[in-house]
Amino acid sequence: MELREHVALAPYTTLGVGGEARWFASVVSQADAVEAFTFARERGLPVFVLGGGSNVLVSDRGFAGLVIHVAICGLAERTLPNGRVLLEVGAGESWDGLVQHTVERDLAGMECLAGIPGTVGGTPIQNVGAYGQEVGETIAALHCIDLHTLQPVELPNAQCGFAYRTSLLNTAARGRYLVTRVDFALTPGGAPRLDYADLRRRFPQGAMPSLVEVAETVRAIRRSKGMVVDPAEPNSRSAGSFFRNPVLNQELLEHAAHAAGVPLEAVPHWPAGEDFKVPAAWLLEHAGFVRGYTLGNAGISARHTLALINRGGATAVDIVALRTRIVQTVQERFRVRLEQEPVCVGEIAAPAEEVAGELPQQGSA
Ligand SMILES: Cc1cc2nc3c(=O)[nH]c(=O)nc-3n(C[C@H](O)[C@H](O)[C@H](O)COP(=O)(O)OP(=O)(O)OC[C@H]3O[C@@H](n4cnc5c(N)ncnc54)[C@H](O)[C@@H]3O)c2cc1C
What we know:
Blueprint: E1 2-8, E2 20-27, H1 30-43, E3 47-50, E4 56-58, E5 63-70, E6 75-79, E7 85-90, H2 95-104, E8 107-108, E9 129-130, E10 133-134, E11 139-146, E12 151-156, E13 177-188, H3 197-200, H4 211-224, E14 238-241, E15 247-248, H5 250-260, E16 270-272, E17 275-277, H6 280-285, E18 294-295, E19 298-300, E20 307-310, H7 316-334, E21 343-345, E22 361-362
Parallel strand pairs: 2-5, 3-5, 4-21, 21-22
Antiparallel strand pairs: 1-2, 6-7, 7-13, 8-13, 9-10, 11-12, 11-13, 14-20, 15-17, 16-17, 18-19, 19-20
The structure holds flavin-adenine dinucleotide.
């Protein structure tokens, strides 16, 4: 285990804001991770587990405990009796690198998730999804260290509680498990998933694109929206979509149409049980938060309404000020409380108006 003190966290994140970690350990094995957690436990330090830093907002005051940076690598492959291929992948591997490996091997199941930044171990936390696929569909099991007992545990898919942007690991067991390895079951020679309208439009009816072509097309669409991390693209200095798509009941849906001054049919929505999911981007745009909107050094991407960006020199307070303005305006106009996707690291100074406890926060002793 490599242990350092006073390490600036901003360079470890895609948003590029925030202060220092008091302690910072890079771990390359399960034994390393146990050693790091034991170090924190002996000193009573809170712990934050960091992957690729693409879904975090770090406090300007940094993190007063130990950040465990997961850099566990490795990939093994075997064929299952049912013909599917099982990939056992170290949590610190690059997610997009893994997607590219699978499409080149003609293994179907994650081709639509190309271009998402971060590590393999970060993907199950919020069950990443895009273009009609979610990672939970192909995860066979998570291998973790239980930070309560410091013992290795295996969580089969059925125990992971995967749903829209949700898993056991960001709800009931938030902060409890450090993922060391993820097992994926993929379909050799399987057809690509072409459910998503944006994607279908790119291929003529009846076309049979390869998995490689689909992954490349997804990356191209994402690039056009500034959703592939690229140092030359200022709109990609974000933490991805900042808000989840909310679920509205019939009454709130009708109110949204009324408040926006449009007929109900003009509000994009799709069924979610008895209720309806509405794109958070639609609510933002109809509350005046359009692409290119700025507030100090923070802003909304010029290419994607849901991506809050660091326009250069932004602090966490700048990002939070913009978030607060958006959340409050949307709530006043539509009576909808938007939920934040990125996880807060350290104490984020929330303006008094914000309801305490609503921010996804992590850090356990
Ligand atoms: C430009 C851009 C586009 C994006 N597009 C999408 C998208 O299309 N769909 C989508 O769902 N997300 C998207 N995201 C969000 C983000 O990339 C994903 O959530 C990603 O999986 C986070 O992985 P990470 O390794 O960067 O995790 P981090 O940001 O480091 O951490 C995020 C959370 O996961 C936890 N965590 C990370 N690694 C581990 C581990 N090994 N064990 C236990 N906990 C861990 C952290 O503690 C934290 O709670 C995007 C982000 C950006 C910047």
